[in-house]
Amino acid sequence: MQTHTKEALASLTAALALIGVIHSGIWFTMFGTPDLMVLGFPFHYFWLVAGGPVAMFVLYWIYYQYITSSIMEEKEQLKASTGSVGAADDIGVAGDDDD
Amino acid sequence: MMMIKPLQQAGEYPFQETFTDLVIPIGIIVVMFLVFYGISYYMKSNIQGSDDYMVAGRTIGSFVNGSAISATWESLATFMGVVALMVQVQMPFLAVWTNFLLSIPLIVILYGQTLRRLGSYTPATFCKDRYGNTMSVVMALLIVFVMLMYALGQFIGLAQIAEILFGWDYTLSLFVIAVLVTGYVVIAGMWGVSYNSALQFWIMLTAAFIPMMFVLNQLGSSGWFFPPLGYGDLVPEMQQTNPGFFDMTFDTRWYFAMFLAMALGPIGMPHLAQRIFTSRSVESGRKTVFWFVLVTGLMFATIYSVAFAGVYWLGQEGFEIAEADFDKMIFYLNFAFSGNSITGYVVAGAIAGGLSTVSGHMLAISAAVANDVIEAFELDVTEDRKTQFGYAAIIASGLIVALIALNPPAFLVVSILWAFAISAAAITPVIVLGVWSARVNRYGALASSAVGFLTVLVLSPHAFGSIGAGGEGLTAALGIDAIMIAFPLSILTFVVVSLIAERVGSLNVDPESNRNLINEMHGYPDDDVERFTSAVPLIILAVLMLPILWWGIQPW
Hints:
Order of helices and strands of chain B: HHHHHHHHHHHHHHHHHHHHHH
Structural class of chain A: mainly alpha
Shape of chain B: globular
Number of helices of chain A: 3
Number of domains of chain A: 1
Oligomer: heterodimer
Strand order of the largest sheet of chain A: 1-2
Order of helices and strands of chain A: HHEEH
Largest sheet of chain B: none
Number of domains of chain B: 2
Helix content of chain B: over 70%
Structural class of chain B: mainly alpha
Radius of gyration of chain B: 24 Å
Number of strands of chain B: 0
CATH topology of the largest domain in chain B: Sodium/glucose cotransporter
CATH class of the largest domain in chain B: Mainly Alpha
Shape of chain A: elongated
Distance between the termini of chain A: 22 Å
Largest interface: A-B, 58 and 63 residues
Number of strands of chain A: 2
């Protein structure tokens, strides 16, 4: 699979996963609110206050790791193979240390 | 201090409503303003040109940026409107507000990092490169419109706080606030505003967090030392006094529509995107999300505890308050449990929130006018003159917002959410699809923005009363029903018009003309490889919009 396709799919998956965990209002109205207490709160309340944001942090971390390691590495290799290292910085401005 | 007088009213409610002693609260607020102006003045020496003025020379690190974005994004509403709506709408509003948290990660994932790599000042700068001058001007006008609507609510909120604090009339309060805010933004530019906003966030968090420890302790919560999650032991009593507090109330469509407005709307908000453009690198921009989620999650959870405690306290004491006073719930709680001085710090936190957001709006307007419009019309102006235009645009925007706020329109209470709906339908699709597809073009973008904007405008209950999207009450007032129609229509228009325009020879649309730009913004080499050129994802997206549109036009 080409790098840009992987990048697009990773971005789409990350966006949908974040939306999925954070917009639990949709799931709770479709499937009902779980009969479970966490730290004294009904589960759905706890999820919206803390569980969702923590899940968001973890999901974003996975996306970040994938993009900064795998995808950026492949882009560097592409630049190296075409002899255009730093091409992405051409439009950038002073102060850039672009990846 | 002759102008300061105690504002205790004649006992409308059986608890303290306003300050009985203003010396310490006003001292706190004056010191806070002096610090903000001091930071602005100190940072002013860094401003050498428009790049420094509008994007802080692209030097801001991820911690400062994460805190600054959080403050800009939370606004005065976090202290007043959010608590009020949590008290009023309860659990569903929590679901709504949590959606808002999505916007910054989605901005970074979907376009923030690419536009930062491109060196854009605003989304309109990107539109100029991607779609040409006409779309750049349309986008700049949309940005100015949306930012003015958003700033209006902040100005009025700040003026109301000044009114309550000093006992001045509304007009005087409004113009004093306008002068203070405009002066601070003019001096600071993005450099000073970024560092000030980061400080403002921490003032906001401590002003919500620490006083809530005292409140929860006195309400009998064993977890009072950590307000965000420490009040679980009060839940059983809450369920007795307010059995409906944890109900989801609305149906699935309501939450879906809220996702469109509250998550996809802020994605198009330039004052948020611009913060990512100030990052010292693309990598730093990505890291900003971690700090943002961490600090904003903490702030939100704290604010939810305020709303919970407010409802709990009213139920426990048997108090009732007027709907119009729900905005002041956080102040009432702190008056009741902590007194004047601590409530003064809470008010300072609310003011910090308002300042941070409105400064972001004014800088976005300034960048749109002083950079994007000038470049779109290809005016030959020097860098110094461009920066001067930036200053003038900020002063003009402050004056315009103050003048509109003098006699605010009837829809004011929902102007912010209306701005979100317009942004979701008219701005977000144009930017996001422009980044991820080489097949969309200027004709599609212009048609999409026009359709999205006009649909929200026409279906809103505040523009043409006789035309609506079927919703009633809160659903209609928040513009939720309109976005369920406007958003899918906007995407459908964008895709269909773009693909048709490719086939009209006289329009000279060539998807390959974007190839270099798209490679550059995504960080690929200029190697003549075609990327993001398939029409299939666009067609799938357009097909997915059909059931959403059908869902949106069903009776609510």
